[in-house]
Amino acid sequence: MVARVIPVSPFDLVIFGATGDLARRKILPGLFLRFKSGQMPEKARIIGSARSDFDSAEFRKVIGAAIEEFLDEEHRPAEAVTAFLDRLEYVHIDAMGDTGWSDLKAILRDDVIRTFYLSVSPSLFGAIAERLSKHRVATPEARIVVEKPFGHDLASAKALNADLLRYFMEEQIYRIDHYLGKETVQNLMALRFANSLFEPLWNATHIDHVQITVAESLGVGGRGGYYDQSGAMRDMVQNHLMQLLCLTAMEPPSKFAPNSVRDEKVKVIEALDPVAPEDIVRGQYRAGRDEPSYFEDAENPDSRTESFVAMKLKIANWRWAGTPFYLRTGKRLRDRVSEITVVFRDPPHMIFPNPMEGRKGNALIIRLQPDEGITLRTTIKEPGPGGMRLTEVDMDMTFADALGSDLHAQDAYERLIMDVIRGDQTLFMRGDEVEAAWGWADPLIAGWQESGKRPVPYDVGSSGPEEALMLLHRDGRRWRPIGD
């Protein structure tokens, strides 16, 4: 299958922090791939800005090197790279002062979409927004994109929202979470709301429980200092896993429109019951063979910051009453895996005299990474003579196989940036949604800090602490193996 490429309108995209790691590793290579695919119109232009006192030629060299470093050779033909680099310009701007803003205003065009991507520290969001307004660089139709982390707690998230809303309308603000740009995350909505097969079963009557796992095989590495001030709860659960939970559990929106979808996501967060202390497990990876411990990576031998979290959540509404949601995420685990597993209830009466031992039951496994796709586990008769013997098989749709490798290669940033240019906020978080998520997370974090308890240790290359396994075992359930 060949992906349809729908060109966007002409635009000027200004990237603040254009020589930083995220811009070099994800944003600009992603824009190049959209350019190569034909989605970027002739009048589209990308303007980099950073503290470096470059000119446009030097900036093009930096981005050319980044494309060579982060994209495979087959995806970066030389002529396409040269043509893309010709679209780039650079303006040196002092984000905290007034230098360079008049130069930026002078090169922006009035007849195209203006978009400002803030690939910078959140501490600069307010200062840049203020100067975009003060120097009349931003028009009433302009769009502004801000990266996570969006706040450290509810108070700081409210302050960031207030800073942005002084100068931009909510309809102009795009709070990006790259998990929402993954093909499979969007397919979750299509699977539920574009088919009549699953949605009638998508409730507590038919679903036993749901597991959401985001496991990473690497440790915190060079991010140790930052991560030790954050932890798995702030870094992953409050945003990425919460978004996956909302899309899995939300009610059908009245239409596929930004505010309709986001209204339903907010309702899920507001319906979450308080989490009991016994329903949460926090862990830290210990040193392994030739592998440093979390203490060593964080350079803090007394750290009480978690590198692993598992928890049991309950949603207090009619659809999900009695169906638990189990979330887990962690560093230095067995494999790099992100998936949502929806486990259906067993038939109310088993008519077969010899049901298979160790039967896992029907499940829908939605894989976000590394191999995006969907698997449906069903029970069938084992082939061959000798009576009715049951077995389980997986009906698998790996997107790279079913839809073609070109679709599989698309990165979340490619899709989300093009959505910004189109003015589609569906896959971006709204201000009240961010605040609702922090409002849920803050009491849990405060409770941990007040208790002073250390996270429990777990082995590198494991599935996490034994206590996390017991979280499901005591309910008569088991986690889906990581890397299965």
From TrEMBL:
Give start and end of each Glucose-6-phosphate dehydrogenase NAD-binding domain: 14-187
Q: Which residues bind NADP(+)?
A: 17-24, 51, 148
Binding-site list for substrate: 178, 182, 216, 235, 331
Q: Does the keyword Oxidoreductase apply?
A: yes
Q: What is its EC number?
A: 1.1.1.49
Q: Which UniProt keywords apply?
A: Carbohydrate metabolism, Glucose metabolism, NADP, Oxidoreductase
From the UniProt record, give one GO term of the biological process aspect. glucose metabolic process
Is Oxidoreductase included in the keywords of this UniProt record? Answer: yes
Q: In which pathway does it act?
A: Carbohydrate degradation; pentose phosphate pathway; D-ribulose 5-phosphate from D-glucose 6-phosphate (oxidative stage): step 1/3
Q: Which GO terms describe its molecular function?
A: glucose-6-phosphate dehydrogenase activity; NADP binding
Enzyme class at the top of the EC tree: oxidoreductase
Q: Which InterPro entries match?
A: G6P_DH, G6P_DH_AS, G6P_DH_C, G6P_DH_NAD-bd, NAD(P)-bd_dom_sf
For this record, the Gene Ontology CC terms, alphabetical, are: cytosol
Q: Which residues form the Glucose-6-phosphate dehydrogenase C-terminal domain?
A: 189-480
Q: Which domain of life is it from?
A: Bacteria
PANTHER family the record matches: GLUCOSE-6-PHOSPHATE 1-DEHYDROGENASE (PTHR23429:SF0), GLUCOSE-6-PHOSPHATE 1-DEHYDROGENASE G6PD (PTHR23429)
Q: What does this protein do?
A: Catalyzes the oxidation of glucose 6-phosphate to 6-phosphogluconolactone.
Belongs to which family? Answer: Belongs to the glucose-6-phosphate dehydrogenase family.
Can you name this protein? Answer: Glucose-6-phosphate 1-dehydrogenase
What gene is this protein translated from? zwf
